[in-house]
Amino acid sequence: MRQLVSFGLLPVAVASVVSCKPRSFNNEAASAQGGKVASVAQLCQGRFAGKLPSWLMAKYGADKDAALRLNKTPWSDWAALKGADGADVPSSLMSSLKNRAQDYDGMFSGLVRGVTNKMAETSGKVNSEIGMLVGLVALEVQRADLLRCNMWDTNGTIDTHPIAAGGTPESPGADQRWASLQSPNIKCEGDNLKFRTLDGVCNDPLNPLMGAKGQRFGRNVSFAATQKRAGVDLMSPDPNTVARVLLSRKNPNHEAYRQAPFFNVLAASWIQFMTHDWFSHSSRGNNEMDESRALRTAGGSVIPSTKVDSNGQPAVSSRVARPPNVYKNTVSFWWDASQIYGADADLAQAVRDPKNRALMLVDKGMLPRFDALTGGAPTGLHAHEKRQEVTGFPDNWWVGLSVLNTLFAREHNRFVTELARRHFGVEVTKLNARQQDEAYNYGRLYISALIAKIHTIEWTPQLLFNPVLDAGMNSNWHGIAAHRFGEDNWAVKRFESLSRSVLNTLRTVEAANIKPGESSPSNKIFAFGVAAPGIVGGRANHFGVPFTLPEEFTTVYRLHPLLPDVLKYRKATDLVAGRATEGNFEAVATENTARAKSADVLTQSTFNDWLVSIGTQPTGTLQLDNYPRFLQNLEIPHAPAWTQSAGQSRKIDLAAVDILRDRERGVPRYNEFRRQIGLQPISSLNDFINQETAYQVFTGCGQKFDPSQLKKDIVSALNCPANLKGQRDELMYQIDQRDRLAQVYGNDADAIERIDTLVGIFAENTRPYGFALSETQFQIFVLNASRRLFSDRFFSTDFNAKTYTEFGMKSLAERGMRDVIADNAPELAPVMAKVCNAFDPWTRPRNRFSVAWGFDSRNYQGSNCSL
Questions:
Q1: Do residue 519 and residue 547 come from a single domain?
Q2: Considering 239, 250, 735, 867, which has the largest number of Cβ atoms within 10 A of its Cβ?
Q3: In sequence order, which residues have a C-beta less than 8 Å from that of residue 130 and are 6 or more positions away?
């Protein structure tokens, strides 16, 4: 029942992208259209701010009073609904009847208890289903508003956009051309059309440059918002001070970092593995090395600036304000596994074995080092990178990335070996040169899609360990019917085929009959309806804005606190034999596994050990005071001498750089950021304190809760029972964080407007159950996650056997992260048989959506992996 109700409204919340009126980025043009075209500002007035009606919270809140208290804060309140934490909450009437039945001592006492227990259980399931559905609808409305109001293109399409120009709104979605995304030098034919290209061109044949390498980062905030605190505000407050006082991990000891018990270091490695594929502002780690453009902080740091895109067409329309700086992506925006295969010709050649054109592996399945290649290392690599393992993206390398790149290189070669037999009918060694190239490209298609699947239905549901998000993300990939009844069910396949045919027919008919100045409701129909068969395998749709990833996306994926300063190195044989203990490990400094050192620690004999080590260790939490110490004293070997400061040549505080990069690139400060993405801004630093925790501490300690009493001396003086000690300690800690925020940003009326976005999102202590991300980060995730699937034809229109081969489609349907590990590190297959999600610490006992920590070397996550 849960899967039927939780049918994935979240991933298809794109339903209202095209509103009742077309949108214009120009208010004057909108007025000239006689009301037929609405400006973005007009459309976004009164948008949903994540707050549900109080009567609804009272009726469907898991705890009525707590739900109403959350309703009065700036934070989204769907998380307080019944079922949003995985628990089934019976109605008050059923709970009362159940309690009374327990005391019944008549002749039929057993029957009465059994009946009332079943009634209460059924009532709880129904209530949780309703609560989950309401939560999904709330997220759908937020997504719809985000897609109407928060997609701003910087690649020159605004002037020619039919909606912005007051012409015919887009109607068939993907069937749309933009002049600035054309190129006379690119031919979308042959292999450029059949396979993924190295630089990402021709993913959309009508717009060959869309999403390609060299295209500009978009925006999720208005261009005016990017200029609000530019100029002199760039260094205020000093980034080094912000990093030291608010971000630094207070003790780098391996036990001291704040841990996320349901997320492992393999998951931390994974997101860096992903971001290396999605975006990069610099080429081979080189930012703007012009000393005259360097960014100099009051704390003494000298940081190269990001390279500015100063050539080509105007970045934005001449009719709207230009962002302060516009930047190009040095890889493609598509999910094309460029971190494995390379985004330029020399790296793409380096990763391939010249003998058989598979991915290069030596020493029984290990990546070679760049300096060991027969033809030598590619040009442009730094000296330390030449001693690293061969990869398509050598920046910021460490053992976690080395493990994943090795795993997926092995998976590529395993797939190609089997593909040769299944598709070409010969052994892989018998393939001719043309077949080798085709097999390689089929392998790249397969690996790209497998990675996207793992990220969508394994990594993300573990990051957002919540039943609402679990249902939404699984439906995102499989669709309602397949998620509920299975992909191989013949009725499901017929249903998917029929629903997709109807959706595409509706869009085609409307495209032929749309009139100038009218809106296109087909996007709404398409977006709602695609929940049934799922996004993957449906029709590509850009929803009126060319696909790109925005600057704000890079901001919310600054997840460095996930990394521990010290890794817990364990022997795989101990875990396989069931004799591993929580305290039995070797402490290895993470920095001693970075760059060229990764090739020293990760060998054929230690590969399984490192895989077990990062699979069993929990990550850090994404909060203040949890930034890794080693990253705040990070050596940059290739940095120029003029970056030397305080006697420490070529070292940076990456936390300070994170703060400065957002300011440099025009990302609004935290409160403005929340306004821009449709969330309520905070009104006081007290809002960062979890008000429910404060309420429970004060009332549990016999005091009336008053926010003005949130002071360390008052809370420490409370006479509390022993069971509230943990909550009081947490409240004291949050009060201390609030006081340090005031210390850094001030106590005046404008203080909350100065808080940096990265600081603000880490300071959010009120989050939905099981969320490793803050709700502000989550909004940007909501907006961008599904677009990567909707826009990419290899996941939508061309996700079929013709493109991937029959064997490729079968493999994608059957395989996940556990299969990749079990087949490419076969000694760990017994471990994977007892792991439910590879991104949950492998030895943590798993009980539905419990986030409790534990260590069990025999049962692992449990043999029953259903939630």
A1: no
A2: 239
A3: 5, 60, 82, 83
- The answer to whether 664 and 758 are in contact (CB under 8 A) is no
Q: 497 and 458, same structural domain?
A: no
Confidence of residue 164 (pLDDT cuts 50, 70, 90): very low
Domain assignment present for residue 182? The answer is no
Number of domains into which the chain is organized: 3
pLDDT band at 697 (very low <50, low <70, confident <90, very high): very high
List, in order, residues 6 or more apart from 6 with CB less than 8 Å away: 129, 132, 133, 136, 467, 468, 471, 472, 475
Do 275 and 258 share a structural domain? yes
Tokens of 375: 């033809």
What are the structure tokens assigned to 789, written together?
A: 């699937």
Question: Token match 């012009």: residue?
Answer: 290
Angle 447-452-455 (CA atoms, 0-180°, nearest 5)?
120
Q: Domain containing 644: what range?
A: 196-479+534-669+756-867
Per residue in 579-625, pLDDT (tens digit) is 999 999 999 999 999 999 999 999 999 999 999 999 999 999 999 99
pLDDT at 313: 42
Answer whether residue 184 is part of any domain.
no
Residue 143 sits in the same domain as residue 99: yes
- Is residue 643 predicted with pLDDT exceeding 80? no
Say if CB 276 and CB 770 are below 8 A apart.
no
Report pLDDT digits (tens) over 319-372.
Answer: 455 555 788 999 999 999 999 999 989 999 999 998 887 889 988 899 999 999
Q: Are 415 and 445 in contact (CB under 8 A)?
A: no
pLDDT for 860 equals 80
**180 belongs to a structural domain:** no
**Rounded to 5 degrees, what are φ and ψ at 124?**
-65, -40
